[in-house]
Amino acid sequence: MSKKAGPVVDTTAVVVTTPQSMTWKDTKSMGEVLAESGMFTDVKTQAQAIVKIMAGRELGIGPIVALTKIFVVQGRVALSAEVMAGLIKRSQDYDYIIKAHTERICTLHFMYKGKFIGESTFKLEDAQRAGVSYGVNWKKYPRNMLFARALSNGARWYCPHLIAGTYTPDEMGLRVDNQGEVIDIDAEVSKPVEISTIGRLVKLAKKYHMRKTVKKFMASTLGKDKFKDLTEDEAVRLINIVKKKGREKHERNIKRAATAAERVEEEQGEDA
């Protein structure tokens, strides 16, 4: 059964194409090139580019769209509403139809193989109740913002596998423009690191003899050489990593020591 197209609206779907097969070597090479191009403002290192590319592949999105439309914030993936719409429209089974779209309400009907399966409505009152209606874009472009919320809610309810349960940047508290694009992701997630947090990180790194490992991770993954250049979130993330790796290392050392002690006892027993 052919899909029934909904009316054209301010926020449109991105045409999502299935990415071609890539080896790990190809992915690393592409990540390096895209990161070095300097064309993607929130991608500073090869590792960051690779993460976005891999997140895109899990959703069936090509590398360029992934780097421009996917945002990784505090370990969670955010996806623009227009890409969510594209993923739904690309599906052979699922679709949505716009039933109401004003500056106060957006209602979408979600379909499965041409049959109605559920409704997603988001009203201006919902935005006010959630405390998100006071931003500039909610005042200037309410239709776009209402559409994005109705779409993301409906997608998570009726076809979550298509979007892997992701949220839009606006839902994660990031500032977006009238098309739902993040304005400045660095400014949104970059709370300056506190001196006390640096102290905790350095102390842990010394305790577990991981200072060189931490510095290498900072340079290769975060694109930063000095502790003072970290954000608070990055520093806390590093602290958690050091704790985990340090404990694992400590446990391995204890097991080795116990094994060595057992061997000594066995040898002493044989000698006796």
Write the layout of secondary structure elements.
Blueprint lengths: L23 H14 L8 H14 L3 H7 E4 L2 E4 L1 H10 L3 E8 L3 E8 L2 E9 H7 L5 H5 L1 H17 L1 H4 L21 H5 L5 H13 L3 H12 L9 H40 L1
Antiparallel strand pairs: 1-2, 3-4, 4-5
Helix pairs in contact: 1-2, 2-3, 4-7, 10-12
Features:
2 domains; 272 residues; 12 helices; two-stranded antiparallel sheet; disordered N terminus; three-stranded antiparallel beta sheet; alpha+beta; 5 strands
Shape: elongated
Helical content, roughly? Answer: 40-55%
Mean pLDDT: 81
Largest sheet: 3 strands, antiparallel
Strand line-up across the major sheet: 3-4-5
Strand-pairing-aware structural class: alpha+beta
